[in-house]
Design brief:
The structure holds two protein chains of two kinds. Chain A is an alpha/beta fold. Helix content of chain A is 42%, strand content 17%. In chain A, the strands form four sheets. In chain A, strands 3-2-1-6-8-9-10 form a seven-stranded parallel beta sheet, with helices on both faces. In chain B, helix 1 runs antiparallel to helix 2. The longest helix of chain B has 53 residues. Chain B starts with a helix and ends in a 26-residue tail after the last helix. Classes of the chains: A alpha/beta, B mainly alpha.
Amino acid sequence: MRIGIVCPYDWSVPGGVKQHIQDLSESLLELGHYVNVLTPTSDESALPSYATNAGSTIALPYNGSIARIKFDPAAFTRTRNWLRQGQFDILHLHEPNSPSPSIIAAWSARGPIVGTHHSSNESMYAVRNMQFLLQPMMEKVIARIAVSEEAKKTMIDYYGGDAIVIPNGVRVKNFKDAKPLPDFDKQKTVLFVGRLDEPRKGVQVLLNAMPKVFDQFPDLKLLLVGPGDVKDILKQINIKYHSQIEFKGFVSSDVKSSCFASATIYVAPNLGGESFGIVLLEAMATGTPVLASDLPAFKRVLDDGNYGQLFNTNDSEQLASSLIELLKDKNRRELLTQAGIDRANQFDWTLIVRQILDVYESVKSVEGRNVREDFRGQLYGRLTKTGRLDRRRVKDSFLTE
Amino acid sequence: MQISSWIVLVIGLILFAIYLSNVAGRLDRLHLKVENARNALGRQLALRSAICSDIAGIEKLDSNLRNRLSNAIHASISEESLEVHTVNEWLIESEVTKTLCELFDKTFDISKYPEHKNLIQETAGATRRVQYALTFHNDAAKNAIKVRRRWIVRTFRLFGRASMPMVIDFDDQIPQGLEYC
């Protein structure tokens, strides 16, 4: 199958959607399909061989993070050229409603189009007000996938209709044999992964809990992985604990898996805005027990605590006591490790990609008509030549019953 | 009437005509989408019946359920009967689904059937594809129905000669034992 995938965000900036697209593409390539990803990027040399550049991006605040997006005349030309040259059997758009090549592709293409909704955000007023403009474009998406129940709910709130849920996956083989970092003790390391300067990642909650834990375990190390201002973090915690905190800054995905492998417990104190919680699965795939806040998305991944420990969101006290309990109880940790590995295997990309291929199969056109540029019945098509090329067929399609 | 008001009137009419034509174009797309989705659903159901007839041949499985499955797929959609499916007949597909759910219930363990692993995985895929195709069809049908109910569409008969899309209903759940296959 020839599959064209559109990534709305900058490829050179790590993020959940980009990771999803990369894993999906690689899994599809391994199965022998042809894949091409159209993505904006500010560093063309870092693009993999299966990706096409859609230009550089501008940064906009979105969903509590910074989203780097692309939406300008050059993007229109590039997207349409890519569509024409690709001759895809399936066009797979990610976040089809974001101002990016995704929406341009939805606007200009016709055929078997699949859309995946990732975000679970309830305050996109701009989108709500623009909805009547977007609706006709969204209708061109034949199959809609949401990565979680939360994402599905958000999508239905905005556009109505229905979607199927195919969860995010994890490439278990990239994590399961990760080598631990040399200078950390697997028995005495607590790990946090996420941007330190982003409140919704919840590093604050963990820092409030740590003094109690450090008092009980004087040789415990806290490893903070993620970009952010180190000084800001150290300011928030008593100076006597500073020697027990280590920073790794921004790391590549290889180092990230090593960090998971060196940790006794991985803590995810996020406050909200998470639609899935792929990091949890990554930690579990390396065999590290997870202690996470009880956000709906995390609860679902951990199946209400069967595959990892939960604590009340934003409750530092409870986090501290759960952490101490887990650090003391080796048996419980071993139990969670095994359960976590089982759970991660259920979300392995080799399984998830099969479900996504099932979606492709169920929308793929039998007559072999692939995705094409087509503006018939749209204002743009009437004003330009593109919509008038084939008048007869327009008439025919009206008669089809 | 002054010439300027005539111009305004003509421009207004032209804009209105463009709007109507746009809505008609959108509706045409929606009808086509429903029709394609219905064909896809029929295709996936036919594929599922074909795979089920192989499943009915696995001797290690419960023989009562296998008989029930054979009977159900006999009545259900197949390559030949794609065109003649009517409203009531969709319910026959529920019987296939229910039988599959009983065959592959929570206690089902794929590792006990190493010689049929591929077939069982294909069955899992087939049941998923039926569910997906049905969801996509009903999503498209509901959308088209919603647009067709708008007064502007009804007044100007913008749907042309296309018939009203229908929501199709039958049991489409994926057997629990096949969820992670």
